[in-house]
Design goal:
The protein has about 90 residues and is mainly α. It has one domain. Helix content is about 50%, strand content about 0%. α1 packs across α4. It is globular. The N and C termini lie far apart (about 30 Å). The model has no long low-confidence stretch (mean pLDDT about 95).
Length: about 90
């Protein structure tokens, strides 16, 4: 079972971290990434039946920031290009 797609509110929280922190100093074990993972897991957006063990875990949160890196026109690094349309819409909005 796949985890549900990221929703707008989740993406805004992740984008906030992307803009506040230096991506190259982050990683799945960074306290900010762990905190965001914790917060995302407590949001009442999805029922527990729709979540698997990896739901918004630190690895997935860090990967989402890598998707934003791929969208960011001000950063020459490649990032993770498998981002979704909503990722790009939220990035461009903010």
């Amino acid at each position: 079972m796949r985890n549900p797609a990221w929703q707008r509110d989740e993406l805004i929280l992740a984008l906030d971290v992307y803009f506040r922190e230096s991506y190259n100093k982050l990683g799945p074990t960074h306290p900010t990434i762990k905190e965001l993972s914790y917060i995302l897991n407590r949001l009442p957006i999805f029922s527990t039946e729709l979540r698997n063990q990896t739901f918004r875990n630190p690895d997935g949160v860090y990967m989402k920031l890598g998707n934003f890196l791929a969208i960011d026109p001000d950063d020459a690094r490649r990032g993770l290009p498998s981002y979704g349309k909503l990722d790009e819409l939220v990035f461009r909005e903010f």
